[in-house]
Amino acid sequence: MEIPNNVIFSEKAIELREKAREIAEKHVRPNAAKFDRDQQYNYEAAREVAEAGLFKTFVPKEYGGHGAGVLALCLVTEELARADSGFGVAFAVNALGSFPIILGGTEEQKKRWLPLIARGEKYVAFCLSEKYAGSDAGGLSVTAELDGDEWVIHGEKKWTTNGGVADIYTVFCVTDATSKSRRISAIVVEKGTPGFTIGKVEDKMGIRTVPVVETHFDGVRVPADNLIGGRPGMGFKHAMMTLDYARPGVASQAVGAAQGALDLALVYANRRKQFGAPISSFQMVQKMLADMAMKTEASRWLVYAIAAAVDSGHETNVSKRAAMAKCFATDTAMEVATDAVQIFGGYGYMEDYPIAKCFRDAKILQIYEGTNQVQRMVIARSLVRESEALKHLEAYIPREVQKTFRNEKVITGT
Ligand code: CAA
Hints:
Number of strands: 9
Strand content: 5-15%
Bound molecules: acetoacetyl-coenzyme A
């Protein structure tokens, strides 16, 4: 059997990473500060990404993509995020919005939308969160009702990343309020559909190049065929499966963000002289740089291993491991960005230089695609379930405790 953690980069993945690195240095980094300040989307870089075929990375071959998998998606996202974390998510959110179709869509739906996404002709957004339903993704209130051969959608979504730029929106709606486990369905809404509008555009602390908006659905009518998978009630599962596939992507955004901050801190530390020597020669700064590099590298290989495991198809606990990658890498990015600001000292606190932006951009990583509290909850729930397999070790816990759950003779571990 293939080893799930066997990280092998395909030639295609390496080629895509190289292209991403080139675009990042030529078209993303030079204007990152301007797009951040103006809260503007970098259409030019997105066009370059499309022309280089990078949107094909996560789309299966049968639908016009490269079928290069989650590992390649991570490599590309990391490179883009290294230059501008905001642009990293502007790219990766297209995968997030596409995964419900890739993982749960009918053949007809895949043929209809995926080739357009692969060619970069249509951008995508994922509409799950609402004002009163963030971490509690099951507590949605946007509704969709079937009227003849159309779904009619009412309500508002919050924090739609890429909203306004995107052409295709995967919208999670309540289609059966009476059901507990089959309450929600995912429905595709295309830009320009009457009744579908962009509401408040959020003024954000970071990742300012990508829009995050409220999306409003005022009696939006879409064909019944837009129901992802063709069967109502599958939406919550599709959302969870999507997040399992997308979280390594956000984790790789964090790896890129951490590496980007470390790169800048390193260059500065080598050039900045105090007390007659570069500050990189001082042990306390060296410790910071070394810790930043170790944690970034640890995150990177955790993310690669988990992405490779997802691609292998043999991973039995994608949810837990995707949550681990997301949580560890994004906590690392925040820590590394914080230390990078510290190394820059007073300059680091000023908006004149990109390091302050690295710090602002890092915070959201611990919040979106599931807060790191939710990730820890997913990991812990999973560990508790898996502990069944460790029953043979019960003989090694204190006998007093053994007595509380066993009436029979105490089994000793010695
Ligand atoms: N795959 C498939 N099915 C799953 C699943 C998974 N990973 N996780 C749960 N399910 C199923 C369960 O089996 C269960 O099914 P049944 O009803 O048939 O038994 C059902 O879903 C409910 O599961 P839970 O009881 O575990 O659900 P819960 O209500 O306790 O919630 C949660 C679990 C992990 C907290 C979930 O709500 C969650 O992930 N919340 C965070 C939401 C989130 O990540 N939002 C991010 C928005 S996107 C974003 O931020 C992107 C951006 O802007 C860039």
